[in-house]
Amino acid sequence: MRWVACGAVIGIEMDKRTKILGITFAVLIAVWVGYKTVYAWWVVPLVRIEQDIEKLRAQESEAAEFNAQYEFARKDYEKLVSRVGTLELGELKDDLHHRIEDLAHEYALEDLKVTPKREQRYGKTDALELGFSVSGQQKLESVLGFLREVYELPHVLRVVDPKLSPILPPRGEKAKDLIKLTLDIQALLLPARPRAALAYTVDPKKLPPQPKTFVRHGEPDIIKLASAKPFLEYEPEKPTGTKPPIDTGSKTPKPPDPLVCKPWSGRWRVVAISMMHDPEGASVLVQDTARATNRKRIHIGQEFDGGMLEAASTRGALVRYHDKSYVYPLGEEFSRRVEAGAADAFPDLKEKSAGIAPLTENEIRALAGLAGETVAALSSSSGSGSAPSPGSTSSRPGTPPRPPVSTGANAPTSRTTPRPGSLSTSTRIGGSNVGNGASNRTTGESLPARPTDQPEGPLEENSEDGAQTPPAPGEENPQPAGPPDNR
Questions:
Q1: Torsion on CA atoms 272, 276, 280, 281, rounded to nearest 10
Q2: 114 and 58, same structural domain?
Q3: In angstroms, how far apart are the furthest CA atoms of the chain?
Q4: Tens of pLDDT along 297-349?
């Protein structure tokens, strides 16, 4: 009986533990079920309802923006396709060809050539490019009008390499002022469904009508440009009333350069003209300072800076242009030349000719061997000529001078050495033989003049031996031998 009582007591204790465990598990299960159902379904929505509303509103705004972009892109693409007017390649090609011919007929282009080119497809956009090569000729106003109309075509196109070139008439015909126009036109044929982030399809039946022209700028902008004044009006300077101060320094102001009678031909970059070591004075040396070895020797009668070299003396080079003669001073540029009659006004030439008597006709003939026309030109540019001494000799044009003959102790002797300033003397300047002229270029001092103790005057020429004698008192001065001056 004792063992039965103990088992009953143990059973009672086990029942209490089982009940406690059962109640504990039941509570845990109830809490878990309530969290998963009641809290998730009822409590959480009530707590997070504001946050969900904000998220939904953000999604709605994003969808509205996307829709707006889609509609804008679709309408914009429809307008672009409407400018083309079609989605068919053949229709676009015929339309462009007819429009170009109509414009050419409107502006009366001659020799019109419209040549189609091969189509090209762009893989990224599925767009087709077709081109035309156009050429024609007409006056400038018509060509510019045709070009402006082509630029304003409504199609999606561009003009490549437009060129305008004048047309020279055949020999013997009068010019017609025609301009030749050549250009290439490249047009695009757009696909119905473009390859883009916003995929859409264009219905050709719902396309808007094609515009007549297409210009990027608007009319108000053109009106503003027409009324604008990009340049300021000229306002003359107001006189101040005070004269500029006069420079009273020790240096003498340099006289202005004389007027250039003929523009520089540009054939040589010359800054040095020098005399050759030539006793006859029949050539000059032209040197290019850019290259020390680039020198050119020019003889009398040859081309010189666009003219003809008539004479070469210590005073410079005498060059004829058409019916006028010009003096090129030694050591000066080609562009600094003056007329032969105004040679004394040139500062450097005046300095060279200071202290030197003018050359006589006989001396010029003997030294340079010039023709009668050349003698007259050089004599007029050098001044009035003076006759040589009675003992001097004369020579005809083209013949060498005769040696002088001495008849006594008191007879005048010929000058065996050249006088200062003659063509036979020379000096070295800048690496070339240069005539010493009337002054020394290194020191600027004038050289002494030739002696004038011998009687001078015009001479007469005998028909027998060619000797010249002074004219009798009261007789007129004879004309110098040689052809007349036809200038």
A1: 0
A2: no
A3: 204
A4: 788 888 877 778 777 776 677 777 777 777 777 666 665 566 655 555 544 44
In a domain, 470, yes or no: no
Give the 3-state secondary structure of residue 333.
coil
Burial class (CB in 10 A: 0-12, 13-18, 19+), 87: middle
Do residues 293 and 310 lie in contact, with contact meaning Cβ atoms separated by under 8 Å?
no
Average pLDDT of the segment spanning 16-43: 82
What's the domain range around 149? Answer: 89-189
Question: Tokens 């419209």 correspond to what residue?
Answer: 114
pLDDT digits (tens, 9 = 90+) for 440-457: 333 333 333 333 343 333
Chain segment 473-486, per-residue pLDDT in tens? 444 444 444 444 44
Helix (H, G, I), strand (E, B) or coil at 425: coil
Taking CA atoms, 178 is separated from 141, 151, 161, 182, in Å, by 10, 22, 20, 13
pTM over cut 0.70: no
Are 63 and 98 within one domain?
no
Pair 181, 143: CB distance under 8 Å: yes
Instruction: Quote the number of domains for the chain.
Output: 3
Rounded Cα distance, 26 and 30, in Å: 6
Alpha carbon dihedral 154, 159, 164, 170, in 10-degree steps, equals: -90
Spatial CB neighbours of 449, under 8 Å, sequence gap ≥ 6: 355, 356, 357, 420, 421
The pLDDT value given to residue 247:
57
Q: Please tell me the total number of residues recorded for the chain in this structure.
A: 487
Q: What is the DSSP letter of 95?
A: H
pLDDT of residue 222: 59
Q: Tokens in use for 211?
A: 């515009």
Helix 140-151 × helix 89-106 angle, to 10°: 150
Q: Are residues 288 and 431 in the same domain?
A: yes
| Element at 132 (helix H, strand E) | strand 128-138
pLDDT band at 258 (very low <50, low <70, confident <90, very high): low
Q: Position of tokens 């290439």?
A: 184
Cα–Cα–Cα angle for 138, 115, 95, nearest 5°? 90
Residue 274 in contact with residue 432, Cβ under 8 Å? yes
Whether the Cβ atoms of residue 321 and residue 306 lie closer than 8 Å to each other: yes
Residues 344-373 as b or e (16 or more Cβ within 10 Å = b): eebebbbbbbebbbbbbbbbbbbbbbbbbb
**Does 163 lie in the same domain as 16?**
no
The conformation of residue 439, written as its DSSP 8-state character, comes to B
Structure tokens at 168: 């020279």
pLDDT of the residue at 429: 31
The answer to whether the CB of 163 falls within 8 A of the CB of 94 is: no
Phi, psi of 409 (to 5 degrees): -70, -35
Q: Please, are residues 438 and 354 in contact by the beta-carbon 8 Å criterion? A: yes
**What element of type H or E holds 163?**
strand 157-166
CA distance 212 to 152: 9
